[in-house]
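Allow me, if you will, to draw on your knowledge of protein folds for a short while. The matter concerns a single protein, recorded as an amino acid sequence and a row of backbone structure tokens. Kindly check, if you would, that the fold set down in the tokens agrees with what the sequence suggests. You will find the record immediately after this paragraph.
***
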Amino acid sequence: MSNLQNVDLSGGPFVGRYVQPRLAVLIPCYNEEATIASVVGDFRLALPTATIYVYDNNSTDRTIAEAQRAGAVVRSEYRQGKGQVVRRMFADIDADCYILVDGDDTYSAAAAPRAIERVIKDSIDFVNIARISTVTEAYRLGHRFGNKMLTNMVRFFFGRQSSDMLSGYKVLSRRFVKSFPAMSSGFETETELTVHALEMRMPIAEISAPYKERPPGSFSKLSTFRDGWRILMLIARLIKDERPLKFFGTIGLLLCLLAFGLSVPLLVTYVQTGLVPRLPTAVLSVGLIITGFLTIFAGLILDVVTKARQEMKRMAYLAA
């Protein structure tokens, strides 16, 4: 880290000139007594000038004691969920550069200096550290498939700068952290972090680092189906909130197409006989057409509101 001891911070997301950047390692933890001391020790070696914070989330084992023994600053967040912890950490801690990492000892601390250098020297606000693993036990097949599917959904709707959206290892600038709304409560917070960076059109980068399996005695708290469903619902909500015209416009267009499909046989019969024998179908078609157009107009109105909200978020981001 010697190349980061004295850095020109006159531009980008920092203020000052030729000063040592304040680094904060943020580790949310829940029952990680088997791994937390190793994680803290690895980051103390990789980033000797950083302050390491461990936020305990109602652990019932010796996580707090092990983190304190390793030299971390230990605090607690009693509302359960990783998103709750991230929200608390971002509100409490002031630094120039933040390293957010899980406490399960699966991520490489050696990758942190390279990511920090991108944040500081290249004025990057969001560096995602993608996982590279050839060990099946480290990265289960269900998790791989779910991550790829959900990441591709976000890439399709919001942008293609990330190939491993659900990685729990990210390096962030101060202005990212202080402008991040942090609305999620659980593991879906990684998705929210990525979408926030994409929506604010922040400078984004991605590097790769080894990903290893958990050591003996450590168990994952991630549920493939439960947490995957929550992430999927978050993506749907973010599409509705951030892309309302696309979201409601698509629904409105589908309703109009359905109405058109139902009305074609009625129109043919009317032309041939001058009668409308299926009145309920005709009423349904008219109702679908009206609902479809109302939905499209709702999307147009919400799109204007969303752009104004994005402008306010952008101003808060620039003010940090």
Observations:
- The longest helix spans residues 279-319.
- The radius of gyration is 24 Å.
- The chain is about 50% helix and 10% strand.
